[in-house]
Here is the input.
Amino acid sequence: MMKQFLRNNRAKAKLCGKISALVLAASLMLPLYGCDRGLPPNEVEHPDDLDGRVIGAVQGSPSVRLASERGVLWASNTGEELMESLRLGNVDAVLMESFAAAALVSATSGVKILPDPLIEYELRFAVPRENVQLLQVINSTLSTLEANGTLNGLRGRYFGGRNFVYVPPEDVTPTSRYLILAVPPEAYPFSFRDEQGNLSGLSVYVARAITDFLGVELRIIELNPADLITAVWHGRADFAVGWLPDDLGDVVNVSEPYAQVEHSIIVRR
Here is the structure.
């Protein structure tokens, strides 16, 4: 009887030891699976909540200036780095063009895009007020480029990182004429110099697609943003790109938009 009693007690002790070990292991694993619980809660639910916050933006993008104006800038080289910084609580929010933001958020858990963007505007070309014919030609060509997918491909390339390669049309007869385009320097992703030193960007390639379609040469001059409209007004350029003000008075006309730009706000869920 005594031997049986001792054997039963030893079995119970082993069982209790195994249960204790399982409980301890589970308690040690909880921080691994609940790693987001210690992060600060999201306190940004509206663009007005950005003031004074730590705001992430991709280095070299237009969002950098917007983030600096509203709060403390946290710049990173890639959107993926920003998503990790947001999830870890290093930044309170991330600013990014909506096309790129949607792709990143869909691939990142624990983050969301606020329904109200920080800012939205349309990209248009500025054309001399008296050159109605050029304005009509640009608008007509933009309509064609929208219909054949060129504009959507370029927007995907510069806003969403898609692998779109622009191919000039082959059935256009070139002429000896040219158009001068004025662009702001270092305005990524709209106009900038690539690694080979060539002017690139969404606005540059849309203008190039227009002139290719018309069979004319595109010549480009780089000017400060404040001088773009003046260059068109005084005849230094035939048209200009840029983030144009809403009220341009009687100085220039503006084309139909070739891109709708929204700067989305990404926060933790």
